[in-house]
Amino acid sequence: MQLKTIVLAVGLMATTALTGCSTIGFSYSTASYSSVVDAGYVIPAVPRSKIPPQFLRQEVRYDGTEQPGTIIVDTGAKYLYYVLGGGKAMRYGIGVGKEGFEWNGTARIALKREWPTWTPPKEMIQRRPELAEFRNGMDPGITNPLGARALYLFNKGGDTGYRLHGTPEWWSIGKAMSSGCIRLMNQDIMDLYNRAEVGTKVIVR
């Protein structure tokens, strides 16, 4: 085994130990990231070769105690896990909040929306006045920051303001660039959207 492969294996084991998840060998998923037409919108293909392979959608082993249907977000490793049951989970690469916008805790999916409208919070408009034109909402579409799907997170205090959502910026996956929301490639959020139900428990670590 080459040294590079050994280093990769050690790095993966160190990362997944935090969540009770581990990769199934090194056979990365063949999940499709081709262009797709959805609700009349043409979602561009994602260039797989430019995405670090660990951030492609793939099935992994899950050794944790959370029930099937639970979502676990590992912000440090930039992974989101959907627990499948039977000792398995589906893992997605994600983009997370930049420094100063990180968060953690437990929430639930209260709403699901296809091709959602995006309304920037007033705090964001204060930081970026050019967004004021969208204070009443940006229409759905390919350039909408929420992408093709959004899952709205609530806790005991109500709407957290955070979302699990798609993004047209595939190059941001694996990085800390958002204002706290968890972003996935559009093809991945569509897959997760079809799996997760309203009421799903979401744990952000």
From TrEMBL:
Pathway: Cell wall biogenesis; peptidoglycan biosynthesis. PANTHER family: L,D-TRANSPEPTIDASE, L,D-TRANSPEPTIDASE ERFK_SRFK-RELATED. GO terms for cellular component: extracellular region. Belongs to the YkuD family. The active site is at 165 (proton donor/acceptor), 181 (nucleophile). GO terms for biological process: cell wall organization; peptidoglycan-protein cross-linking; regulation of cell shape. Residues 69-205 form the L,D-TPase catalytic domain. The lineage of its organism: Bacteria, Pseudomonadati, Pseudomonadota, Alphaproteobacteria, Hyphomicrobiales. CDD domains: YkuD_like. Keywords: Cell shape, Cell wall biogenesis/degradation, Glycosyltransferase, Hydrolase, Peptidoglycan synthesis, Signal, Transferase. SUPFAM superfamilies: L,D-transpeptidase catalytic domain-like. Residues 1-19 form the signal peptide. Pfam families: YkuD (PF03734). The keyword Acetylation does not apply. It comes from the Bacteria. The keyword Hydrolase applies. GO terms for molecular function: glycosyltransferase activity; peptidoglycan L,D-transpeptidase activity. This is L,D-transpeptidase.
